[in-house]
Amino acid sequence: MSLLTAWQFLVDLGHDEPNPLQVNRHVPVELDGKTVLVNGAAGGVGHFAVQVAKLKGARVIAVASGKHETLLRELGADDTIDYTRTTPEDVVRDVDLVVDAVGGPTTGRFLRTIKRGGALFPIFPLGFSEAEEANKLGVTVSATQVRSNGSQLAELGRLLSTGAIRPVTDSTFPLAEANKAHERAARGHIQGKLVLKVL
Ligand SMILES: NC(=O)c1ccc[n+]([C@@H]2O[C@H](COP(=O)([O-])OP(=O)(O)OC[C@H]3O[C@@H](n4cnc5c(N)ncnc54)[C@H](OP(=O)(O)O)[C@@H]3O)[C@@H](O)[C@H]2O)c1
Fold it and tell me: Strands, DSSP E only, in 40-144?
């Protein structure tokens, strides 16, 4: 679902269902040759967004805490920013697209990192309140809610099986210990995905 989310935000929406998060339809933007900043780059959605943007020809700046730097470079990030040491919106300018996989009320801080004509895609857009500023700056802000899509999942399955996109596992728990997975999730700073083993 996390990879499908990254795909539907970045490559192909894949459905015509009404968008519960905004009036207009979410439209992905060109990635080839563009500069894309991914915030929350080591998390479930973020680590896939980094790889999808790279696969589609973008230069990627990955923002995460420092412990994820090696992994993010392995996944293809061209530059990394450790947000615990450097505030990304103080040092980044003129990117084409910000994918904010943290999102929420603070997502508007990225508006000043984006060039006129660029876009901000908050994966969790609730709380965004700078629509007027975005308008002034000529930045499109857009979000969508992931929807199941069989043909997209088949395509993504092929990308996973060839290794073109790699899922990263933070930790694995037996289904009977799903509570421990919740405890791990509650501690935050996840690298990739949590796995529940059914058998
Ligand atoms: N629109 C949709 O359809 C859709 C679909 C799926 C998920 N979502 C939403 O997307 C959000 C992300 O989901 P997820 O599964 O990717 O979460 P996640 O796996 O918990 O990842 C969050 C990542 O953000 C990093 N992070 C935390 N604070 C940060 C900060 N201030 N700056 C930069 N990175 C920070 C964390 O690690 P470090 O702090 O160690 O870097 C972690 O790797 C959630 O709000 C979820 O509800 C929306």
Answer: 59-64, 79-82, 95-100, 114-122, 140-141
